[in-house]
Amino acid sequence: MLMHYKAITFVKRPTTDITPDTFETITLETPALKEGEFLVKQTHMSLDPAMRTWMQDNPSSYIPPVAIGEVMRAFGVGEVVESKNPAFTVGARVVGVTGWAEYVLGGPDMQVVPAELPVEALLCVLHVPGLTAYVGLMEIARPKAGETLVVSGAAGSVGSLVGQMAKAEGLRVVGIAGSEEKCRWLVEELGFDAALNYRSANLAAELAEATPNGVDVYFENTGGAAQHLVFDRLNRFGRVTVCGMIADYSREVPAPGPSWVDINIKALRVEGFVIVDHYDKIPQATQALSGYLQKGQLKYRAHVLKGLDSAIDGVNLLFSGENKGKLLVEL
Length: 331
Ligand SMILES: NC(=O)c1ccc[n+]([C@@H]2O[C@H](COP(=O)([O-])OP(=O)(O)OC[C@H]3O[C@@H](n4cnc5c(N)ncnc54)[C@H](OP(=O)(O)O)[C@@H]3O)[C@@H](O)[C@H]2O)c1
Description:
It holds the Pfam family ADH_N_2. The protein is α/β, with parallel strands linked by helices. The chain contains 12 helices and 15 strands. The longest helix is centred in the middle third of the chain and has 14 residues, at 128-141. NADP nicotinamide-adenine-dinucleotide phosphate is lined by residues 48-50, 128-129, 132, 153, 155-159, 177-179, 182, 198, 221-222, 224, 243-247, 273-275, 318-319, 321, 323, 326.
């Protein structure tokens, strides 16, 4: 049955901040399905900092930019409402690449997930944030009990999981976040050893106090104010996982990074990664994350916006730091 639905297209590449004229809301009609196709009614959409990078026409990126006029790209969860594909039956819950739209045509990357799994556990832990935290920490940083880890963007969806996993692995964990409320949440609710506000005028001294034995692992989610200070405290054989640089996504020219002299002299390993190159690790990541969840070692919080249109302004909460937890849109 053909239905009209709302979708949001990407119409203007931002040069700095994302403004409402970046998008246009349109009405589309669901297509008549061909053999092998299925139609998904999206129920929850994830808003991610990577969306800003998908808007950039950067030929070196890991993924093509969203084209002008295209429905804006997103990850999301939905229910199959019509199907000509026996692997995706009507009523099944699916997760994968969707788009800023109420209905989407199911794609080859979609996975069926158990309907009884809470959507928030799926989008806040088991899907992108958890896989990212798992790969960046366990596969790239390779932490050892007794070491000190500093994570930036610590109260965010990836950072909060990284810190809790590192605690579960026996590390000293220091989080860096942008508000006192977030720092309290990290220490009082998630059990971080310390949390520092990067807006503090005394950040260097506070960091030195929180990391008396230096820093062995720096999980970098943001760049910005703390980066050089943490880098300067890295111990010999320290590892830096470069997961994200949100402080630079909207800048025309990225901030200069730390010097390579220390990488040489301290024998540091600085390694970037993008999860699209690590989908083969989904089974072990899911197993590890489910284990932490079952033992009560992972807490999470979702910041839920209502209605598709809320994404247009809502995406900026990620850049102002006003999101408290994984930013989602409930459609
Ligand atoms: N490599 C990958 O495959 C991969 C996958 C997923 C995510 N990521 C990256 O991981 C990072 C975190 O993503 P997330 O989904 O967990 O988002 P998130 O942390 O839930 O939200 C973004 C947070 O970034 C902080 N922030 C914004 N501007 C900042 C600035 N100028 N300086 C310092 N902090 C700033 C804000 O927190 P405060 O209040 O603390 O400022 C904001 O809440 C992002 O850089 C993202 O691109 C990478």
